[in-house]
Specification:
Length: 751
Amino acid sequence: MKNIDSFTHVRGESLFVNDLILRHDALFGLCFDSPKAHGKIKSVDYSVAEAVEGVVKIFTYKDVLGENQIGGIIQDEPLWAEDEVHFWGQPIAFIVAESDAIAKKARSLISIEIEDLPVITTAKQAKEKGSFINAPRSFNLGDTKAAFEDCDYVFSGETFSNGQEHLYLETQGCYAVPLENGNIKLTSSTQGPTQVQKTAARVLGVPMHKIEVDVIRLGGGFGGKEDQATPWAVMTAVAVQHLNRPVKYMLNRHDDMRMTGKRHPYSSFYKIGLTKDLKIKAFEAEFLQNAGAAADLSPAIAERTLFHATNSYFVPNVSTTVLSCKTNLPPNTAFRGFGGPQGMFVIESAIAEAAEKMGVNRRSIQEANLLDEDDAFSYGQIAKQAEARSSWFSAKEKFELETLEAAVKIFNEKNKWKKQGIALMPICFGISFTNTPMNHARALIHIYQDGSVGVSTGAVEMGQSVNTKMLQVAQSILGISADKLKIETTNTTRVANTSPSAASSTADLNGKAVEMACNALIGRLSTVAAKEFLVLEKEISFQEDMVFVNGKKSDLTWEDLVMKAMLQRVALSENAHYATPIINFDKTKEKGHPFAYHVYGTAITTVTVDCLRGIYEIDWVKIVHDFGKSMNMGIDLGQVEGALAQGIGWMTLEEIAYNEEGRLLSNALSTYKVPDIFSAPKTIETIPLETEGSELAIKKSKAVGEPPLMYGIGTYFAIQEAVKAFNPNYELKFHAPFTPEKVLMGLYEGS
Ligand code: MTE
Ligand code: HPA
Ligand code: MOS
């Protein structure tokens, strides 16, 4: 099945927040944000701005009737700054005016006086100053101290991976409308409708039922709208509460880039110990996460770094610690992979360093340590249906690695000014929210009396095509054609208390709830049909919009059966609740079984570096990926390719830069380079690994949203190999992204 949105997308008919027809009395909001990264607010003068014709009101923390607090995990983030600012771009006030242009003009007329306080921009500085978000976390397995003693080789080093701008095509935004009796409806571009509802209720000081949040779809989220869609929605809600008129606020690209958090930069230290037979005996790492000025989702992201610190390898002795460092950057947040990629980059770097020093191929160390069935992860979960080895060897075999390596060797012998490099990148990613209580979802299904069906879930469509998957699940159980099914908007009045659409788990969690609701409806309809045909319920089935009896098509249509059920007063609506079984995690011991299952795969990447200019091309990426039993290969391949491109961008081109004062320099698309068609791999070939799939995956179709991003890490090491082929004096560095500038310096260092 094609993505059900594809036609309306192509015709430009799909609706986003910015497409809504506004009520005649709608107003426009705009944030006034801090022009300093850290300081005491001495005074703000709004008088000139307020006097501009068409400015209705300028809101500040003083207008908050509930709590001026939007922190989720930790209560450390005001909606609007009070007497101090902690990052450049921190919201201070919210201008509401008759038009966007008026609001913009008013913003330029606000003057502010800030007394500077010291600015911290890096995690290392924060650690030196003891500036942290919360207490450190550690995962341990075995005894690394003793194990290092037994190692033939021990290496240690340092790595850095930079942040990443989400660059969703649709910027953050919300349209808020007053209903009667102080009720407010928010149409928000959020991955977490309940998070918006709950936070708005708290800030407004009203019960949650006064706030309705509706989400049509997102023009991309990538984690950037898991928590950070909330403040803008809440600001519009506060304005509606005071003004009783609709208020819309869409951030422009500059404002969005400046004010929102990004992927967390990490500075990390590792120590790796190996034996002569290339086995990794011990691994230690300290991860310094640059959390920014408030917690946001940082503690959860830090946790996932620890979960993925050994990637798809079995290491018997592990000691890993993560520190969430508090800095004066915008609070960094979820981004596809959720801390996992940052963790995996470190062990891949450690392996590269070990291989270099030991004079062996990086791939041979990777291969010698791949996880096997029943191996333990550092957090206690035992690997089941472990596909680390099968995907690795299948990639080697299917893509004829030896031939590829030989071709690279010949190319490098023949070419003086161009060099190629090749890298393998295995992945292993745990599926479930690491916070066990979040793993639940609901579906509400109505069969209307004409036989058409409406499906509501907590799933937010953000381009990952979850709505298409929900439709497929319902269709396969109800046995009706797709045009009888409609996937409704995601709305807190139909499906409440949702977890955000995230952790790659949206289709699994919501799909299982859809499955349960459909099965319950089919059960009741089978009773009606069985009575009609004087057969047992189990002899009834539903296919092709018809009732089947004992596998044979009857003359009773779906529509007629639904009408019969209606006349017999049978319930045609169902609400189902699903909670992932089995999973658990004990944070006091840092052990448990947090993931429903893992997703595996292996990518082979080849790059060609232009050794005069430092630029490079990615020739191809060849992937064997564990889809389980994919329920929609077109969609899933799209997810692999999109995630890969994002991973490559993070590792190669996308360079976030803040100056020492904490001002974002890469604040526009002219200064922040994302992969375009020229920087995409020339070919991407993805082969599904043949596996059974997992019972906990929807229809055994494994989660696919985030895992393939980490294939992009292979690009870093392929480039590194090419640089080394040109310049044997190059000393390995692990400082991502590997921009053409850094490549050029690497090509000529030491000569
Ligand atoms: N694909 C598109 N097109 N747009 C997105 O915003 N978000 C990614 C991934 N794929 C995203 C996407 C992220 S960060 C996650 S967690 C998953 O989709 C969420 O959706 P899922 O749980 O349905 O996989
Ligand atoms: N992944 C993604 N988003 C999340 C998670 C997670 O594990 N936990 C909370 N939000
Ligand atoms: Mo995805 S980073 O879990 O929204």
